Predict the 3D structure of the following.
Amino acid sequence: MLTISHIHHIAIIASHYETSKAFYCDILGFTLQEEVYREARNSWKGDLALNGQYVIELFSFPSPPARPTQPEACGLRHLAFCVEDIDAAVQHLTAKGVNCEAIRVDPLTDKRFTFFSDPDGLPLELYQA
């Protein structure tokens, strides 16, 4: 039997590596654990952590294709981050120039959430714990 203990990491390909690295680190609060340039692939790879735990592999590749549509394209629909105070989180993002949708309430859980996008339009969600 397969026994999965947890999600190890999420891989994201950025069209502009430095812009996305700044977004995830400077705005969302991830820390850069390690960064390497892979010359054979003309690609950067950064390992980003949240609260000391490795979470995101951030890649660059020359001329990656754009996401076809959002958020209903086949594949990853969105990435959700848990926050304790969604109003404070939205205020922080707005002050950094990030546009958030209006806060909604999940009819099944009664929890508050909102969506915003990373620099490449990847749909991200804030979900209040």
Summary: Residues 1-63 form a domain with the 2,3-Dihydroxybiphenyl 1,2-Dioxygenase; domain 1 fold (CATH 3.10.180.10).
